[in-house]
Structure prediction request, 799 residues.
Amino acid sequence: MVSVCFYFQVHQPPRLRKYSIFEIGHHNNYFDERKNEAIIKKVARKCYMPANSIILDLINKTDGKFKVAYSMTGIVLEQLEKYAPEVIDSFKALVNTGCVEILDETYHHTLSYLYSKEEFKEQVLLHSKKIRQLFNYKPKVFRNTELVYNNDIAGFIGKMGYAGIIAEGADHILQWRSPNFVYKPKGLNNIKLLLKNYRLSDDIAFRFSEKSWKEFPLTAPKYADWINKINGNGNVVNLFMDYETFGEHQWEDKGIFEFLRHLPSEILKHPDNDFVTPSEAIKRYDAVAELDFPHYVSWADIERDLSAWLGNKMQQEAISQVYNLEPHVKLSKNPALLDEWRKLQTSDHFYYMCTKWFNDGDVHKYFNPYDSPYEAFIAYMNILNDFRMKANKLGEVKVVG
Amino acid sequence: MKVLMFGWEFPPLSTGGLGTACYGLTKSLSRKGVEITFVLPYSFDADNADFLRLVSATNVKIKRIASALQPYMSSQEYRKSMGKKPSQKIYGSTLFDEVHRYTLAAEKIAEEEDFDVIHCHDWMTFGAGIRAKRKKNKPLVMHVHATELDRTGGHKVNQHVYDLERHGMHKADKVIAVSNFTKNKIVTHYGIPPEKVKVVHNAVDFSQHYYDEDFGIKKTDKIVLFLGRITLQKGPDYFVQAAKKVLGHEKNVKFVIAGSGDMEPFIIEKAAELGIADKVLFAGFLNNDDVERAYKMADIYVMPSVSEPFGITALEAMKYKTPSIVSKQSGVSEVIRHCLKVDFWDVDEMSSKIIALLRYKPLHETLKEDGYFEVKRFSWDTPAEKCIQVYNELISKG
Prediction:
């Protein structure tokens, strides 16, 4: 029996304006609303709307045998509500089928666990609340930003009451083991661990349109055949990827939607295959072993570590400075200030400052609104300096008062 | 393979990137077994005892032509320099007469020498190249390090120089441009078909070793450096305007202008007029050792050129671990990533980046380290190989 478990990440960052050094102290708006609006509308048109409609159709056609899960950040939901509310409605329709699971994560797509557990918890609760409000749904499985994971996070999330957590099926952790089983985090019995099968996931997410790939072109029967081969030596294949894979990273004219449309029926041709959501996988399968993740692992780049966000001095400085402001921001009890501070924590801001791929023509570039990592750092630091002045002022007033 | 090369500056008698480029390229070509006869103008009153020693390679032969030609010279400047030297009767009375004299002398050398291909560097030598080709019927390569449009920033273009450049490029069998930026100019403004123009980016020589030195001025101030000819092409006026803006926000910083040129009096006055005369220091024209020290002393190097075909100075600054801010209107900005880039006219952005580098230490450090690492990968072997490829293609075509 092979169960296929799809989870799609839905996220768009709150992109920042190119804030000038001369604006520090003027407390102008930090966010590039026009760009954010244009991008969310474009992605809604190219990806979210067509993909949602195909998936709804597939669920109906297969009588609910096709199932998927989504993790949607609070900030993408905010942007959708504001600029493309039709996408929210179509997600609601999907959730109403009962075949769609929603995962929890940090509302602002942050690395807060690394800097402040208290702040991390608040952001997770905020996300949970947003999902309940919009979809009347209570998530049971957690995924951390960029699949950043270690033993401690699993323990923390277990204590918060989640039944499962998601991580990257990194080779250096798995070694000889397969990602196609349910595991449990080291020393924990209250929470199970699902690992991304990165080879099969990346075949769709990264290699689908790659002409130099020996498997090009990838077809649904061929892919289903790869899944079938797992029969007998695996229980669950976790295919985790950005939702923007469909129509945005891989383009419609390259056949990505056709692939999606045909994949479920091809997989279901084999009588032993089915689809599950993360919660169902956890419920159905026992953990085969305990896995030890002493160090942080993520799903980014070949390193599968934190170096995409914290690899250079600029990134380290910027992120530690933003978290240093926590006491001031919280003392101010000012909701607008708190919201702004949290939006400055979104991990994408630090990703844009990454220099490690900058030498070789780079994958990161497509996703980067700045001309260079240096421009990203300058804009961010200018904003942070302005924000610090604001936070100090507001934070102080409260102390005195 | 034997190459007859015509140039007009070579270290240490060089005032700019052309000499550095010719030297680096020649050295690497000779290492790769290319035999070069390098024909150069040679001024009697210049001190050039070390001149030949610099070319250590055995298969480089230097042929000198006594001449008052100096790179980057304008007609007026030539006249001025001639006025100071009434004794030198052999020289032509105008710049163009002198270029013509060089051309005739070069033709003679071409007659005597044995070679497979002719390689000329910039307009003063184009006439010589054409004559050498006519004499021996060998393929001709014109290497464009700068055009008249770059030198003048597009204003007051000297028609005669432009015509010589255009004629030379049309007569050439292949044109080498130091950047895509320059190739575009050659295609658009000189009417050369794009397939005839090959881009060969410059490089930087990494042989010098790096050592630390204490500079007194740095105890109190950070240094922002401009290094280049003080001419319209290099954008010194934008540098001074940016200095004014930066000084409104940052106190302990000095702006150093190293170089000389026709705009120097104007720039000095401009600094005074802006009320920053005490913060802008003029270092004058620097010799090679002092250039090195200037790069090391500087915290930030700014190259605000209005039109810069390549811009080797940016690579040199990075080699000395000085973060660079370079004009987007430059060739070098096509090939380096670990620097900051601005439009030369955007004084706000230029000053904003200078301030960011002064204030944000991790930015300065990352650019310093990554820039050094990046520039290390440059080598004159790359352009030399591309030139050899051009030679081979032309020779095989007969």
